[in-house]
Amino acid sequence: MELNTLQHISIAELCRRLRRRYGRVEFPAPLPVLDELVATILSQNTTDANSGAAFERLSQRFPTWDGVRRARVAAIAAAIRPAGLQQQKAARIKRILQTLHARRGELSLEFLRSLPAAEALAYLRAFPGVGPKTAACVLLFACRQRVLPVDTHVHRLSLRLGLVPPRTSAANAHELLAQLVPARHVLEFHVLLIRHGRQVCHARSPRCPTCPLLDACPDGLRRLPYERSAP
Ligand code: SF4
Q1: Which of 200, 215, 221, 224 to mutate to test ligand 1, by most ligand atoms within 8 A of the CB atom?
Q2: Separation CA 112–CA 35 (nearest Å)
Q3: Do 18 and 75 belong together in one domain?
Q4: Is 89 a catalytic residue?
Q5: What digits encode the pLDDT tens for the residues 169-211?
Q6: Is residue 229, in this structure, part of any structural domain at all?
Q7: Ligand 1: does its nearest atom lie under 6 Å from the Cβ of 159?
Q8: Which residues contact 186 (CB under 8 A, 6 or more apart)?
Q9: Which of 90, 123, 142 is the last residue of a domain?
């Protein structure tokens, strides 16, 4: 299916409306690339506050990445407990550090900054447990490459807005949205859709009548008669 047969609003207009609601989006100060990778793993399935606390505790308990690489999984898990799923995340972080050390003999990913985006993505995806969203987050936020991460909010809103065909998986949405979202809008598209997903376009009960995208949203327009008549 052609993407432009589905789309009811331009990406520029979508970003303009959400910017008016949530404000301008700027890049945060970039972290070292390996720090961003670990921080992104910690952020999976939890809040920014919890993952931030876990990263802080991990840095205090292990001042170097080599210390984490050599530590037992249980000790890493104890340090990152605020992030939740600590056993799984600790094992993943340790495996990544071991793999990186074996590949390069050092614990740094700074060389990714000078690689083309596709090559850097492939390098990151080859680590155990690093999926397309995590790899894209690292490239976008640490390297400021215009690579779009599709998290649960971006995925849900893209489906509802008809930006991708119905039932498109998050993995496939990465490829489709990469073609659709111009490089200059990638950061704000990602950040603004997450804000909108958290504040208005909730998974279970989107607040469509208050949504600035309603007139361009097939899913919202379908829901509206029901929502208006609901008690
Ligand atoms: S109209 Fe409703 S479903 Fe569509 S983006 Fe807005 S809140 Fe989400």
Answers
A1: 200
A2: 13
A3: no
A4: no
A5: 999 999 999 999 999 999 999 999 999 999 999 999 999 999 9
A6: no
A7: no
A8: 140, 146, 147, 148
A9: 142
Residue with tokens 């376009």: 201
* Co-location of 112 and 54 in the same domain: yes
Tokens describing residue 87: 């056993």
Q: Does residue 228 fall inside a structural domain?
A: no
Q: What SS3 class is residue 155? A: helix
Decide whether any atom of ligand 1 lies within 6 Å of the 211 Cβ.
Answer: yes
Q: Report the nearest-CA residue for atom 4 of ligand 1.
A: 220
Closest atom of ligand 1 to CA, residue 207: 7
Q: Which of the listed residues 142, 175, 194 is the one where a domain comes to its end?
A: 142
Residues ≥6 apart with Cβ < 8 Å to 98? 69
Q: How many domains does the chain have?
A: 2
Q: Which domain holds residue 58?
A: 33-142
Cα–Cα–Cα angle for 156, 187, 178, rounded to 5 degrees: 60
pLDDT score for 229? 47
